[in-house]
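To close the chapter, one final illustration. This time we ask the reader to focus less on the individual chains and more on the assembly as a whole: which components sit near each other, and how the overall shape emerges from the parts.
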Amino acid sequence: QKEVEQDPGPLSVPEGAIVSLNCTYSNSAFQYFMWYRQYSRKGPELLMYTYSSGNKEDGRFTAQVDKSSKYISLFIRDSQPSDSATYLCAMSANGRGSTLGRLYFGRGTQLTVWP
Amino acid sequence: KAGVTQTPRYLIKTRGQQVTLSCSPISGHRSVSWYQQTPGQGLQFLFEYFSETQRNKGNFPGRFSGRQFSNSRSEMNVSTLELGDSALYLCASSLRDRLSSGANVLTFGAGSRLTVL
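The assembled structure is written out below.
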């Protein structure tokens, strides 16, 4: 079992829809949770990150973390065709030390928003 | 401000050959990480360097190696290429150092797409 599980999709929605993307994980040491967006032929770019449990909002994007369930979500409101990309969740453990720079990624969910 | 630069962007090799990929991090970033991305496995961690020292290594065979130079630029090398090494190799840099706590915010390059025939 991979440490981070993410449904690869593909997910196809009409413009204006609310999109929900999710990941589950198994390692209770994870404290930092991130969402990256990757366009075709590009590297991943950071969208948001949160620490521990709770919600964080940035414009049309909301990230939620439920550590008790080991479940994280990204919501996209009023989705746009420009949101069409692969969304990757990533997470890492807390604290200091040589192993803590490593991120553990989900496989990514491919999203298409059609006009 | 220039981003993370990876070269070459695309390359084709045959089985048994070796390949060297290059990464120039964002100016001021001293930590460089490498990831392999494939459709089946997603992003898998290869290694991380800080101040010319490998700090962490993923679960890849010894054919995969890397190094970091004093100017923080990094290279990775794959020897005796196999078909399964075909992938997008991503380099990422961050401000994180060995004493940092908190999120390791990575900035990725566009990647080097390797095809092994």
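The longest strand of chain B covers residues 42-50. Chain B has a mean pLDDT of 92. With these observations in hand, you are ready for the problems at the end of the chapter.
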